[in-house]
Design a protein that fits this description.
Number of helices of chain A: 13
Low-confidence stretches of chain A: none
Largest interface: A-B, 28 and 28 residues
Helix content of chain A: 25-40%
Strand order of the largest sheet of chain A: 5-1-8-9-10-11-12-13
Largest sheet of chain A: 8 strands, mixed
Oligomer: homodimer
Order of helices and strands of chain A: EEHEHEHEHEEHEHEHHEHHEEEHHH
Structural class of chain A: alpha/beta
Number of domains of chain A: 1
Distance between the termini of chain A: 28 Å
CATH topology of chain A: UDP-N-acetylmuramoyl-L-alanine:D-glutamate ligase
CATH class of chain A: Alpha Beta
Shape of chain A: globular
CATH superfamily of chain A: Ribokinase
Mean pLDDT of chain A: 96
Amino acid sequence: MNAATLDVAGIGNAIVDVIAHADEAFLAAEGFAKGAMTLIDAARADALYGRMGDGIESSGGSAGNTMAGIASLGGGGAYIGKVRDDALGAIYRHDITALGLRFDTPPATEGPGTARCLILVTADGQRTMGTYLGACVSLGPEDIDSATIAAARITYLEGYLFDPPRAKKAFRKAASLAHEAGRLVALSLSDPFCVGRHRDDFRDLVSGEVDILFANEAEICSLYETQDFEAAAVAVRGHVKIAALTRSEAGSVILADGAAHKIAAAPVARAVDTTGAGDLYAAGVLFGLTRGLPLPICGAIGSLCAAEIISHVGARPEAALDKLVASAGLV
Amino acid sequence: MNAATLDVAGIGNAIVDVIAHADEAFLAAEGFAKGAMTLIDAARADALYGRMGDGIESSGGSAGNTMAGIASLGGGGAYIGKVRDDALGAIYRHDITALGLRFDTPPATEGPGTARCLILVTADGQRTMGTYLGACVSLGPEDIDSATIAAARITYLEGYLFDPPRAKKAFRKAASLAHEAGRLVALSLSDPFCVGRHRDDFRDLVSGEVDILFANEAEICSLYETQDFEAAAVAVRGHVKIAALTRSEAGSVILADGAAHKIAAAPVARAVDTTGAGDLYAAGVLFGLTRGLPLPICGAIGSLCAAEIISHVGARPEAALDKLVASAGLV
């Protein structure tokens, strides 16, 4: 096994976020479940965009957000995801590479445009998402570069990748390449309804291929079809080396080697927009793991990164996370 | 004179902002004067974008920002500006119309793409801008609709409009249409270097056509080629009905009818990004004027709107300004 030259390789749906404020009545009128991610087609995306308020645009995508966090923490890595060769795709590529991350996946030159996620943020800071997958549907196993995966300490996969049809194969190819190279595989369950859509595949993957699992309460409960968080926690313990389970304001718990490390949430003056909170928690934990830090410290870095994202609109860090973590005395 | 059906008609360069953090060394290496706006061509915009950090995109443009503020305060109006029929142009149009503002200017169907302003925000919250005018250069007098101008209590013009060659004619046409209809004409000087590029035209306009003038210290001093703010204030008094002169943290002074109203700046917990501060001050003052409020109250609304914009990244309001102003007891 060669020495790793990258910290993390992240694979996900490459999506540009369009973020606007909305009230609960608007969510209801549009038929969205508050706090969830709903897949929408191009026509619905256009119609919804026409009705939603003025917004800001920012590169997003769950694993993309996590990779941005890792870069801001001082980590190195590569992103794999599919954009179209259009204006939004150029913005997405710029934002990833400007962070010092590698992004070698060629853009699609035909077919649907770069994916968009229309994000409606309510006054309580909660976000509700309508995602048009666009060019993401063309990501396939041919986009997984074995040298990149072999070079990364951890290969990180977002669960949302199970939605576009060919990405599942890319997902499995990346996981086995990582293990062949003696590396770790991490997975985020992404969304309870996404877990519901692909439960058998996820269980199969978690029990066979995943070393590090990220999930929130609703996601881990959905995976094991239980309403009892403790029961779900017991179930996952046997399958993965490390399970980091988040519980919003109640913080998180990291399960590993028979131990359970309770992690406090970091204080947030005002929850402006929770978009990306889970993604940035994962960034903090993964960064800590690549640096060989103890699990309670990894979790505390995750909490701090999540708090930064919640304090402003948008899912990419505004503050330099490396300085934030250093001034909190965590590294 | 018919009753006005619009509060403000705003005319400006329709520009999409791309906002990223940068340090002073980067500004120096790129040859930018900190705090200023530099016009750049397409090639330099592409090269700069390639070197700058990851960012967010948001509709911008000085008068566009002001109109967004007026809409958020509960005012009605129309925006006149030129985008291209491309992806960024569609975003710009969406954001203006989603605020309830009219935007009837047809997009350019050929020529350069929608304008972009590359904004570099330093750690002290100051912004430095490189503007590629793109499709804005095709705005001309044919885009000024006389019914819209006649319907608006105030026609508001941004000084930056003097940069694209044909907009000057549009500018003068709008001013005379407004006066023919018995309405007021307001102008923002926009930028001290823009004033320097077009000083004679600006002086001519201020002494002949402008009723309400917005300028910061550097701009009003540049207009009258003096380094003495008091001398510039004396000079402007004779030319306009109302002059609102801003002095950053020192607040502003509104000169009218021989009186000088000193206005305090509103407190800002942390100056995150000053982009749009002047534009939103103008929004508050103009809104107050359309409601017939006393000048010190108009100024206080302006200060409050500026403080909201400074407290976050981006030049469009994130909070509902009408509620902010109501809870401050100003309306």
